[in-house]
Amino acid sequence: MTSLLLTGIGSLVTNDPARGGLLGEVRDAALVIEGSTIAWVGSRLEAPAADGAIDVGGRAVIPGFVDSHAHLVFAGDRAEEFAARMTGTPYSAGGIRTTVAATRQATDEQLTANVARLVTEMRRQGTTTVEIKSGYGLTVSDEARALEIAGQFTEETTYLGAHVVPAEYADDPSGYVSLVTGPMLEAVVGHAKWLDVFVERGAFDEDQGRAILEAGLARGLGARVHANQLGEGPGVQLACSVGAAAADHCTYLTDADVDALASSGVVAGLLPAIEFSTRSPYPNARRLIDAGVTVALATDCNPGSGYSSSMPFCIALAVREMHMTPDEALWSATAGGAASLRRTDVGHLTPGAQANLTVLEAPTHLHLSYRPGVPLISQTYMAGRMG
Ligand code: NIG
Ligand code: FE
């Protein structure tokens, strides 16, 4: 196995609590990659020899971003819907059906190419782990193919047959829940690690959501919930009561929701690109962090409610609009995302972790929010390989 020394690191974010501070930052640092993992981390002056060496010239190095929420298997876009929103038409879950119609008509090759394009886009912005959901097929075969395609790009695949009730089941929503918990679930087992449900007015109610989550858990899928996006509702507390890994969106929270998140340990996924692009109020991350809730930041990249694939954009919004410090925002975009996906091998740079890291075109990670909109990703390594 060949080893590579990265040296001349002005600021290294390890997320290792043993190194102190939230980010376990090491100044004037070096690290050694062996094969696909991190073998050594420390001060530049103490670095061991390796087969090769790269001096990053004082740049900052951070863990690759872990984007724990994205919808990438779809066809077409909804740019006109976005334009209408900007002149006052509110976002509603109904737009999902537009993308469902386009996705059903697309070929496997078209859908695969779209995912490849977006994963590449993400990678260029420093993301090295991404969760990918189905949810624009909503038939047994279309959901199964979406998850097979997602699985070509990530192990973090999520079955979202319960995105909305498709038009052909408009008069029979319970029939659709039976499909989602029965034949559709059976068709995706083996291709999905997670099951997600959109608990919202216009999508699925609490009882339907519980039935769907429990069916997935019984078949060995982990649970995730789209919760409290468009208004207060039962989503967050449902996620907590079934032991979901994540309750994502959390745009509208009651005190009881915050308490439930804190006591259950369910990760709150905050998705500020969605508030940006739907003109909704941003959730107050400070309220969650102060209550002891683990917060993940993710893009929720999708053609409807928000079409950004950029974790740096989310970090900048989190700092400017959600009362997170730059350190907290970076932690949530890396270690927080890993917690949301229940991964211990990514989201930090300590010996034994996957060598997923990003070299910034900046001396410290503060520049991610200090210089919003500027492409600051110099290099990304994934499993030890640059590219
Ligand atoms: O996470 N809220 C549900 N699903 C997506 C939006 C999907 C769409 O509008 O196409 C979301 O925001
Ligand atoms: Fe989503």
From TrEMBL:
Locate the residues binding N-formimidoyl-L-glutamate.
Answer: 136, 302, 304
Q: Cite the binding residues for Fe(3+).
A: 69, 71, 226, 300
Residue span, Amidohydrolase-related domain = 245-362
Which sites bind Zn(2+)? 69, 71, 226, 300
Give a yes or no for keyword Zinc in this entry. yes
Top-level EC class: hydrolase
Where along the chain is 4-imidazolone-5-propanoate bound? Answer: 78, 136, 163, 229, 305
Q: Look up the record and name the cofactor or cofactors this protein needs.
A: Zn(2+); Fe(3+)
Q: What does the record note about the cofactor?
A: Binds 1 zinc or iron ion per subunit.
Pathway given in the UniProt record: Amino-acid degradation; L-histidine degradation into L-glutamate; N-formimidoyl-L-glutamate from L-histidine: step 3/3
Predominant place of localization:
cytoplasm
Q: Where in the cell is it found?
A: Cytoplasm
Q: What keywords sit in the KW lines?
A: Cytoplasm, Histidine metabolism, Hydrolase, Iron, Metal-binding, Zinc
Q: What is its EC number?
A: 3.5.2.7
Q: Which Gene3D superfamilies match?
A: Metal-dependent hydrolases, Urease, subunit C, domain 1
Please indicate if the UniProt record lists Metal-binding as a keyword.
Answer: yes
Q: Write out the similarity annotation.
A: Belongs to the metallo-dependent hydrolases superfamily. HutI family.
- What is the protein name stated in its UniProt record? Imidazolonepropionase
